[in-house]
Each structure stands twice: as structure tokens, then as C-alpha cells.
# Entry
Amino acid sequence: MNKANDPRAHEAALAAADHMLGDADARLTLVEYGDYECPACTQAEPLTRHLVKSFGKRLRFIYRHFQLMEMHPQSELAAEAAEAAAAQGEFWAMHQLLCSHPHQLDLAALATHAQSIGLDMNRFNGEMADRIYTQRIQEHRRAGERSGVHATPSFFLNGTPVDVSFGFEKLEEAIHAAVDVTLPAPSPASHASHAAVKHP
# Structure
């Protein structure tokens, strides 16, 4: 298979640049595909921080973008702002601001957020104007589509989908259940595959 068309190569490259909270060696990996203009995603943000804190070294959390542009026209620009912040080491600070202010996602508001967390504004404004993170955002969405994502937020725990349509408590229940299962310790070579979600 041509490496350029190999989904495993795409997934490995995506995983290498993932935004992660928690212990890199955790046995459990929770992946969220989210949209900053999605009300349910913004409601989930405090819970994901709580889970990382509660489960300590047993859990790591990864956030990926999945913009529903037909319903949320400002979501892609917001995701690009998060990536621009990530380039300056401030992804999670921007992520939390975007989730806390879901109705302030126009370019002027994004610039205000960037300034409030101390970003280099010349760099931020230039990268936003050039839309240099659009491709990365779209790669996140394609990865989600390959995994069967069609709505946000969508969660995967060690590659297995977790249905939160009846409440976010299902997420914590799934993690508690997984913690009770004896899992083999990950090897250094398998870190990228642990971060990846399963593909059909």
C-alpha cells in the first residue's frame, strides 16, 4: 500500500501531534471528538478535566476536532485558534476559554482570548489570517469519520465508543469498569497506537 494512502500512517501522524492531558503512560486513553460551538461539548469540558484529575496516572485524555460546519459555522475558526495557541504551548488554556465562551467565537473574540493567555499576537494573527491549521483540523475530522463519528461530543475509551447520549455519567461508569480490568502495561513502542481510536 502506498504510504501516503495508508490509514495507519495517517493515524500515527495524527497521534504524534495529539493534545493530551494526564499521564502519557496511562493504561486508559479517552479520546473526544468535539466542536467548540456544540453546547454538549462545552458541558463536557469540566467533566473531562475532573476525570483526568480523579483517575490520576490511570487515564489520559486526548481532544480532537470534529466541526459540524453546517450547524456551527464558527467552529472551524475556533478550532484553528486552538491550534494556533497549541503552537505556542497554550492549547489547553485556549481550549478552556473556547468552551467557557461558546458564543464568542468570531475572529475578534478569538484574538481577545489569545491576548488574555499571553500569546504572541503577531504570530497568532498571522497564522489565523493564513489559515495554516485548516488542514490539521480537517485531518481530525476525517479520522473521526473513519471511526464512525457523526455527532459531537463522541468519546472512545481505549478505542471503544462510549455512548453518552443518555448522560455523561456513562463516561465515568465506563472508565470505572475499565479500571477494574487487568490490562497489560503499554510498551514505549505502542504509545501511538494506544492514543489512536479503532477503525472499522
Remarks:
- Residues 21-193 form a domain with the Glutaredoxin fold (CATH 3.40.30.10).
- Residues 39-55 form the longest helix (17 residues).
- Confidence is low (pLDDT under 50) at residues 182-200.
